[in-house]
Amino acid sequence: MILIALGANQNSPAGSPAATFAAALERLAARGVAALAVSRLFTSPAWPDPSEPPFTNAVAAVETALSPAELMAALHAVEAEFGRERRVPNAPRPLDLDLIDYEGRVESPLSGPILPHPSAVERAFVLAPLLDVAPDWRDPVSGRLGRELLKTAEALGNRAFPAHINLS
To answer: pTM here?
Structure first.
């Protein structure tokens, strides 16, 4: 299973984060990345500055013939199409697409993107929507179940809350 996290805390030319996610998934489909399932939307406080607008987050299970490196390039290209600029880390943005897991691969930066995404297991805003589309997901590195990792993240105060809208 290939899992992509979607996030935004600003509107894009497509509109709200929900509209941006739907449009981004269409753009990815045109690049050979088909969404198989998409989670509900979740909200979480902005980090590291919680005074910024809150984030809307989702996860999509996708299939593609693209390699992990090719998929990352496609994700970055779609982000740019929606106005993402990578000037300051963790800045507000209209679209953030992260490759969370690519068929359980564990890879270092020398061979392509870091897989699985190194911070996903600590982020409730990734884990909560991920469990919507892959309820039995295990971290390929530790072998721990996603639901266990989510409990740990929430115990540390890292929370994500279901939004009142969804993509379906």
So the answer is: 0.89
